[in-house]
Amino acid sequence: MTKIDIRKLMIAVLLLWSVLLLATAEASRIKELAQLEGVRSNHLVGYGLVVGLNGTGDSSDTQFTFQSLVSMMNHLGVAVDQNEIDVANVAAVIVTAELPPFARAGSSIDVAVSSIGDAENLAGGTLLMTPLKAADGNIYAVAQGALVNGALAFGGKAAKVQKNHPTSGRIPDGALIEREVPFVFGEKSELNYRLKNSDFTTVARMTKVVNQHFGGQYARSLDAGQMQVQVPSGYQDQVVEFVAELERLDVVPDTLARIVVNEKTGTIVMGDGVRISTVAVSHGNLNLVISEKEQVSQPDPFSAGETVVSPETQINVAEEEGNLVVLEQGVSIGEVASALNAIGATPRDLIAIFQAIKASGALYADLVVL
After folding, report:
1. Residue 84: predicted pLDDT
2. N or C: which end of the chain has fewer CB within 10 A?
3. What is the 3-state secondary structure (H, E, C) of 246-314?
4. Where are the domains of the chain?
């Protein structure tokens, strides 16, 4: 083999390697594109009390804190007089958590604690035993522990120093799971995957990749947002391994051509599929400045004249040169950005330009204004 043939072979290998790298960079795994039906988390919520605060708890005007504290003390066998209770070291809070899928009794989860009264600071407090319920009304976890909020708030009547948010915090591993969500995973012979962003092209590509990888017609697209997979006979007793192998498959998702603009912040995000037809864009600013000042005519001393005030108005008009740029049909997002930057358009100007191009019918993309 000659040196020229070797050089050509090396160039071909490098080109092939570049194409493979590009395809891999654009592809995503099925686990990032779709979610297995039934495998989901559940919201938990509960009402509790945080104690041990240094006088930064709820005030005497918060009646539900009084009632909760009295009820808790009575439940513990302590008789108290409501007129002698001070809740300055106590705060009523709402506790929230996420019950992950396949969570087992005895495992722990993080909880978030937020004040619902007029407490000023929850730093240094301890959450008392708080049952956490799901939407069905059943208790699935119990939370308790020292609160961590990473905040401080000090001050007086005239000044105050505050860092972060002192009326909320978290308790890592602060809740113990007491009840499990009934779900048997290994007994299913059919699996349904729901796409996070429904798209006919994406779900069709997913179905094709799954069938090619497992060598059969095991997957089928039900609609734009759902793919049904039949577990092969060789994986009937290894459903977990089958799902793990399936979710590792790479699929190139298809996305809508879309431009998202936020006029409040001047943010513009354009997708790769944005295309426009031939259009001419002109950009120019008209600055109109109107200023007024008063001319005072004052008579000589000891004369019979009067002081006369006459207004004088000055109008200055400055108009920048209009730059006309022609954007050819089918240009890419990079060419659109370069052309619009060439005429010196600011983000807010670009928003107005995109709206005008959309109104003219030359924009082949969805324009979303936040």
Report:
1. 75
2. N
3. HHCCEECCCCCCEEEEECCCCEEEECCCCEECCEEEEECCEEEEEEEEEEEECCCCCCCCCCEEEEEEE
4. 42-177, 185-251, 259-298+306-369
- Report how far residue 209's alpha carbon sits from residue 228's, in angstroms, rounded to the nearest whole number: 13
CA dist 125 and 116 (Å) reads 15
Does the pLDDT at position 256 exceed 90? no
Q: If 0-12 CB within 10 Å is exposed, 13-18 middle and 19+ buried, where does residue 116 land? A: middle
CA–CA gap between residue 281 and residue 262 (Å, rounded): 21
Question: How far is Cα 98 from Cα 132, in angstroms, rounded to an integer?
Answer: 10
Q: Which residue has the tokens 């513990």?
A: 76
Residue 156's pLDDT band, with cuts at 50, 70 and 90, is low
Local structure of residue 77 (DSSP, 8 states): T
Tokens of 231: 């577990």
96's enclosing H/E stretch is: strand 91-99
Q: How does DSSP assign 157-192, residue by residue? A: SS-EEEES-TTEEEEEEEEEE-S------TT-SEEE
CA distance 289 to 17: 60
Q: Which residue has the tokens 């240009």?
A: 331
The encoded tokens of residue 156 equal 């007086």
Q: Which of 1-15, 146-160, 343-357 has the highest mean pLDDT?
A: 343-357
Cβ-defined contacts of 105-110 (< 8 Å, 24+): 105/177, 105/178, 105/179, 105/180, 106/176, 106/177, 107/176, 107/177, 108/173, 108/174, 108/175, 108/176, 108/177, 109/141, 109/173, 109/174, 109/175, 109/177, 110/170, 110/171, 110/172, 110/173, 110/174, 110/175
Residues composing the chain: 370
